[in-house]
Amino acid sequence: MTGPIDVDIHVDPACPWAWLTSRWLAEVATVRPIRVRTRLFVLAEINRGAEPDEGHERIHRASGAALRLMAAARRAGGDAALARAYTELGEAHHERGEALDDPAVLAGAAVAAGLAPSLAGEAAPGADPSLDEEVLAEHSAIVERGAFGVPTLVVGEAPPTFGPVVDRRITAEAAGELWDRVAWLVTEGAFFELKRERRHRPGIGRYRVTATAG
Fold it and tell me: Is the peptide bond before 125 cis (omega within 30 degrees of 0)?
């Protein structure tokens, strides 16, 4: 290929695994010719119909506010603004333990991303139903293509792929080397699936958010 490779990463802002994969891709973009776009995914929809769980429902409600903020950020400043909003939300939630549905946290993330703090009001439940419609439409479109959880990558014209799931920050050339192997796999037509046992890691899975279905 002569230009950068386009890579979409679909995330739910409450998922710590998607957060770490997104940070890995941000590092990859500094050492490999890729162009990353952050896209939306709704774990609450994947988990709809599951046995009621108060913890899940609380996190899904909080995630809804963050997803609406990200959609509002894109309206205000395009894909780059959405990516900045996701970064600031992730730093607040996953790194500092702040609540995604706290209006002050949402406003702070908007400001840190170079956006108006009023976007937090737009992200409030019921404030702008069209934001929910936009988020759900984006989620439904990638699910129709075969996605079932986060993180989901779409590399170029290849089908959506779940993962990679990483359990720590991967930086510099190490990030690029992992990318080299992942990119080959997800664009190889014969490749179907690769898994290993998931073990709890300190600092990961602090919130019981289902990241996969099946």
Answer: no
**Packed helices 129-144 and 54-90: angle between N→C axes, nearest 10 degrees:** 90
Per-residue pLDDT, averaged over 17-23, amounts to 97
Residues 6+ apart with CB under 8 A from 43: 12, 14, 15, 60, 63, 149, 150, 209, 210, 211
* CATH fold of the domain at 5-187: Glutaredoxin (3.40.30)
Nearest to 64 by CA among 133, 110, 142: 133
* Segment 30-54, tens digit of pLDDT: 999 999 999 999 999 998 877 667 7
Per DSSP, the three-state class of 23 is helix
Tokens of 177: 């080397």
Q: pLDDT per residue over 126-184, tens digit each?
A: 999 999 999 999 999 999 999 999 999 999 999 999 999 999 999 999 999 999 999 99
